Amino acid sequence: MTTRTREAAPPAVPPPATSQSRRHRGGGATPVARGVWPLLVPAMAVTLALVVLPVLYTVWLSLSDRRRDGTNAGFVGLDNFARMAQSPEFWNSVRVTLVLFVVCLLVETVLGIALGYLLSIDVPGRKLFQGLMLIPAITASVAVALVWMLVYDPTLGAANQILTAVGLDPVVWLGDPDIALWSIAIVDVWQWTPFMALIIAAGIRSLPAEPFEAASIDGASGWAKARHVGLPLLMPVISVAMLLRTVDLVRFFDTVYIMTQGGPVDATNTLNVYGYRAAFIDQEASYAAALQLSLLLLVVIMAGAFTLWRRRRSIEH
């Protein structure tokens, strides 16, 4: 008996896949790419109207001489920037801004890590507590400043009552040039530490368990695991939170202006407050424009430094 054997048919060769990103023979963009551009026009128009044009107007204003009566004396070049560089008040405002930035950022980061670890522990009522912690961050800064002005009141404020209760002398929190800046820093730490803690707590809960289990097998203690395993893994999240706070701290304005208007004796006169006073109190629009451009440059430098630091860490790890 013979068996019929069928010859195996050669496998069908699929047609070559065409790339969606391949351009047409005429060299133009794909239909999908052409269809995206009309959708981008509204966003580009809004960006141009709200960002690019105001910046260009500020640059033009800083290079001219806008007088108090509203007239413009014309192009003066870099005279406003030269005046700014020779002004002791300007350099004092830069110092105040940097001191406030460094102190608040370091304290909020350290407290945020500690509080974030506590928030990452599963305990009853954790979600409710997290919601309550958001209240300072979502409260308007003007309202926060007014509440803390009552707390710092020399006679009726809770701060001096606490000092008196423990046997210390009352303090003029917002009237003493040596204390006023630290009083502002306390307010910012109180308002924004929960924000940092919630971001870090979310990062802690997303960490993989395998590195910690391996460290436990090797006999690492809890502190060693937190320092050599948890902290390096958490550093990208911490750097993002620090970057967000950096941009806000360099532009610090509303709380300072409500509580002290930059005083006493320019002790809390940040760069943003100094520019506001130059524009709306001294009526020197061109000089104020130069100050705001210097503030913009400072924000770009600080944000760029953090971004570069994050990229280097990601390359190293």
Task: Please provide a brief summary of the model.
This protein is 67% helix and 2% strand. It has 13 helices and two strands, in the order αββαααααααααααα. It has a two-stranded antiparallel sheet.
Report on the architecture of this protein.
It is a single chain. The protein has about 325 residues and is mainly α. The chain has 13 helices and two strands. The chain has helices spanning about 30-60, 80-85, 90-120, 125-135, 135-140, 140-150, 160-165, 180-205, 210-215, 220-250, 255-260, 270-280, 285-315, and strands at about 65, 70-75. The chain has a two-stranded antiparallel sheet. Strand 1 and strand 2 form a beta hairpin. It is globular. The termini are far apart.
Q: What percentage of amino acids are in beta strands? A: under 5%
**Global mean pLDDT:** 85
Strands, total number = 2
Let me know the largest β-sheet. Answer: 2 strands, antiparallel
What would you report as the Rg, rounded to the nearest angstrom? Answer: 29 Å
Give the spatial strand order of the biggest sheet.
Answer: 1-2
Kindly, what is the distance between the CA atoms of the first and last residues, rounded to a whole number of angstroms? Answer: 70 Å
Residue ranges: pLDDT <50 for 5 or more in a row? 1-8, 17-24
Order of helices and strands: HEEHHHHHHHHHHHH
The shape is: globular
| Residues in helix, % | 55-70%
Q: Figure out the total of helices.
A: 13
Alpha-beta classification? mainly alpha
